[in-house]
Specification:
alpha/beta, Oxidized Rhodanese, domain 1, 2 domains
Length: 268
């Protein structure tokens, strides 16, 4: 994949705005910001609706294929729909929504680079009326390689050809991380948490791990990890996965960690 397949800039979206085949979603974690103002016609992408209800940790366990397809269809997304996801001031939320939809098999989804602020700076209007799209039918074709479970991570840590990457800020990594994982903060790939850096800068930050045959990214709950994983795709590295359970599951399973901090800082 390349940058243009993954991202859409605000000026391009303005030109396409009004196309009846486009579905726009505000993927900010809570709907407070959405209700205060969003791109006209945009619906709200509720992340929790895509997590298995039995999960003890929000967002970490993805719905099975049939339920995932039902949820995507309920949002008004078909396989032929063009989807744009964005967030307000927090790019990782939109990236996580993109990763989920790509994992489910959707081929026509992009992230609005810069989110709502870029839209407004480009001259786009906003509204505060809640919107929904008519339900559609979505046929899943899972890209199972895009998510890793704890069993794969355990095996990956034994291999010299797979990198397990913690994407949290360095202080969080130093506080507690999966034993054997390395640090590569997602903060180094973004401009003020709102947009991806240019490709050449991203490639420079990622170059220390791209010699590996596979890369698995993780964070606290599987959201920020999608930023690094998507950045790899953007620069041409395809064999990358998000460990969806991330630190919440790893700690709950009492699996090996190292660091100077207390586990409680991850349980809040």
């Amino acid at each position: 994949m390349n940058r243009n397949e993954i991202l859409i800039e605000a000026d391009e979206l303005l030109k396409k705005f009004g196309d009846p085949n486009i579905r726009i979603f505000d993927a900010t974690i809570t709907d407070d910001g959405y209700l205060q103002g969003h791109i006209p016609g945009a619906a709200f992408f509720e992340h929790e609706d895509f997590s298995a209800p039995e999960s003890q940790n929000r967002y970490t366990n993805i719905l099975p294929a049939d339920k995932l397809a039902e949820q995507i269809g309920a949002l008004g997304i078909s396989n032929e729909t063009e989807v744009i996801v964005y967030a307000c001031g927090m790019l990782p939320y939109a990236v996580r929504a993109w990763w989920l939809l790509r994992y489910a098999g959707h081929d026509k989804v992009r992230i609005l680079n810069g989110g709502l602020s870029a839209w407004k700076q480009a001259g786009g209007q906003i509204e505060d009326e809640a919107r929904q799209y008519p339900p559609a039918i979505f046929q899943p074709q899972l890209r199972e390689w895009m998510y890793a479970n704890k069993e794969e991570v355990i095996e990956a840590l034994k291999s010299s050809e797979v990198a397990v990457v913690n994407v949290m800020p360095r202080e969080s990594y130093d506080g507690r991380h999966i034993k054997g994982s390395i640090s590569l903060s997602s903060m180094n790939l973004m401009q003020q948490l709102d947009a991806f850096l240019p490709d050449d800068q991203i490639a420079t930050h990622l170059q220390e791990v791209t010699h590996n045959k596979r890369i698995i990214t993780y964070c606290g709950g599987g959201i920020a990890a999608a930023v690094n994983a998507t950045a790899h795709l953007m620069t041409g590295y395809e064999n990358v996965a998000v460990y969806h359970g991330s630190m919440f599951e790893w700690l709950a399973e009492d699996l090996p960690t190292v660091g100077t901090g207390k586990w409680e800082i991850w349980k809040k």
